[in-house]
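Hey, sorry to bother you again with one of my protein questions. I've been staring at a protein lately and its backbone has me curious. I owe you a coffee for this, so here goes:
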Amino acid sequence: ASHYDSVLVHDAKAQELGAHVRELHSRTEKAVLDLTGHTVLGEDNTVLQRALKVRNPYTDCLNVLQVEALKRLRECEEGEEKLLKDALLTTITGVANGMGNTG
């Protein structure tokens, strides 16, 4: 989310909001870990941990590609949109499929 903000968001208030949401997420995650006594979310779910370990390198790359596709789409000349929209849709589909029921 921070990468999306840093590359794609130019409005200071929107960037502030993004930082605030990320802070709330971080505090919520810490509270859940404190309540469960875990050091990692879902650490007692070995199937989920294995799935995340396999999935994340691929979805992380797709997220970076998605940011770049959005950036280029916003900056492109007329007539260049088709290829960039296809790339963007491919990243959206890839991330959605990668997240499956864990997203």
Q: What stands out?
A: The first helix runs from residue 2 to 8. The two ends are 14 Å apart (CA to CA). Residues 2 and 61 are 15 Å apart (CA to CA).
